[in-house]
Amino acid sequence: MAPKNKFSKEQIVDAAFHIAKTDGMDSITIRKVADQLGSSIAPIYVNFNDVQELKQAVVKKVVNVSHHLLNENNTGNPFSDIGVTSLQFAKMYPVLFRDFVMKQNDYLLDYDQEMENSLVTHMKKDSELEDFTDEELQTILFKMRAFQMGISVMVANGLFPEKVGIEKMKEMLDSVAEDIVTATHLRKKKE
């Protein structure tokens, strides 16, 4: 007889997410999740075949958290929205940020392409960017992400002086975004 399903998939993923956000993705084990739930391992195996399947569910939750933050920051300025979202994620979830961004891993193989497509779609809503092709938007996004990632890494690692708050970082992101878009427009005119 199969063990009774005592916990929902969502509760199990939430417990695994809690472990990941405090100790990192590599710390997720079936035993630790069971301990987090105050349970045996049986209910976890009722919902997930193995720890890798559970970790993929946690990755999906991280993606959903990222999308939720992006939607909360929907000001109509895509670069600002993307940058502020990254800064917030790095500040709220520094361990996860380091796991996903600063470590070689397989967790985000599908996430990066999905997120890039979503961000390019988000960028197309900006009238200042509507004349660019998808390829040009991807290049602009890559340049901006390189700068934004540097700031986010500094946030996740506590390297910014306390006097430099989110607003100052947002000003820096906006300034660099404006520079990148202006330079891309100028290059496009030369062609």
UniProtKB/TrEMBL annotation:
Residues 6-66 form the HTH tetR-type domain. Residues 29-48 bind DNA. Keywords: DNA-binding. Gene3D superfamilies: Homeodomain-like. This is TetR/AcrR family transcriptional regulator. It comes from Oceanobacillus jeddahense.
